[in-house]
Design a protein that fits this description.
Layout (H helix, E strand, L loop, with lengths): L24 H13 L9 H13 L10 H11 L28
Length: 108
């Protein structure tokens, strides 16, 4: 509703807690704004929680130079194919998929 005099009520039933981030009043205000500006049913998260998830994702990710077997490579490529922006990590660093068939590689 665009009427500034119409108020909607929210009920906070739990506060998420993590070792690295505890949401505060500013985070709650940001979340309320996000809820107001996004369609009903769409997932919203405040910036502190998004940063926390990005950090956790990076800790579990494969890094440059890490050897991967065929199954791990297949799993990663399958998962990357399901996300909206597979060319960037959660922190915004660029990622690239280079596919190379090593079966035809000749020894030096």
């Amino acid at each position: 509703d665009d009427n500034p005099h119409v108020h909607r009520k929210l009920r906070l039933i739990a506060q998420p807690v993590s070792k690295s981030a505890v949401p505060d009043t500013r985070d709650l205000e940001e979340l309320i704004k996000l809820l107001h500006n996004h369609p009903t049913g769409q997932m919203v998260r405040c910036s502190k929680v998004r940063a926390m998830f990005a950090m956790q994702a990076s800790c579990m990710s494969s890094m440059i130079g890490m050897p991967l077997n065929r199954s791990q490579t297949s799993t990663i490529l399958t998962h990357m194919g399901t996300i909206d922006q597979p060319w960037n990590c959660p922190h915004g660093r660029p990622m690239m998929r280079h596919l190379f068939d090593m079966t035809n590689l000749q020894p030096l």
